[in-house]
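Lecture 7 notes: from sequence to structure.
We start with the chain below.
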Amino acid sequence: MPTRTTTLTSPNITLENSLDYLLDQSWDKFNGNRATISAKEIPDLISEMETILGIGYLLTQIVEASIKPFISQDPDSRFSKSDVKKIITFMISPKSFASVLRDEAGLSDESVRSRIMNNSRTSKNDTFHIWKKHQNIAEMKAKSVKDEEIEQLNKEIAHLKQANDQKELKLKISEREINRLNTRVEDLANVYKDRGAGERTLVAQLDDKNAALIESTHLCKKYKDACAEYKQREKETALAVKTLEKEINRQNEVIQFLQKQLPVDNESSSTKDFLKNLPIVKQCFIFLKYRHDLKDTRVLIMSVIGMIFFFSFMVNLVQVVYLILSATSFDKNSGIIFNEDVIRSRGVLDLLSVVPAIEKFVYEYIDW
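Predicted structure tokens for the same chain:
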């Protein structure tokens, strides 16, 4: 009957949940009330679990290869109970804790349950005996205290009480001083409260100046960057100018060399100067030079040819006018002048003298 009662009241321990119970018992026995343990203490905790199950060093052999590098990285790192459970599960993987106990240790649900329960009862009995032993020792020490020691303790208590009274007196004095200082602080706070508005104004002005200074700093940096860029462009421009000057000098040398190789045609040059100095051509050349800046040589040539044709047209027109006037000059009022038996009318020049402008143009043309 008692055995049946124990079975009914015992927890449902299986291979799948045995790790939780083993951790609880090992933790309480090995670590006490501490919430965490260090990494270097995990092997001892595993050894305690092996002792409870009675499986030798099976778990230690399985996790030995994985736990040594883990501990060597940071042996003083702290882990909670749930962290230790995750570490053990990870080191046993890919197998599960239940499969290790079942396949390699040959344990069943009943054997694991009985061993865990037996260890639990043993731990409770050990705890009771240890408590009873300490209680007996304390009672023996209490009985062995002598009256002299009690009197000495009473003196120490009186001395401590006197010292405590002095400290309470000093505490009251300190409280009064603190109250006085608090009053002084309140007075100073009221005094400086009026200055707060002015200080806030000064702070605002200072903030504005700081903002202006920051903006000026940004502008200065911007201008410095622009100046550096302009200097770089200036260097590039100077280099380009030097390159262009070298190219121009090289072209001038080529032109001079070609001019030396070409024969000099003085007659062509003189003819060109003669044509260029003709009044009409000269006027046309000056007109085109200042109007079109001689940008196109074909325009100049066409203009000169056009002026020549226009001049020819004017000459022919004057001849026609001369013939017409000669024909009309043989009327009865014209008169005949006899010179060495040659009959001559007044002629076109005599008729042109009537118009001074035409006469001047004709004489200038003849002189030319």
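Points to note: Confidence is low (pLDDT under 50) at residues 1-9, 127-138, 330-345. The radius of gyration is 65 Å.
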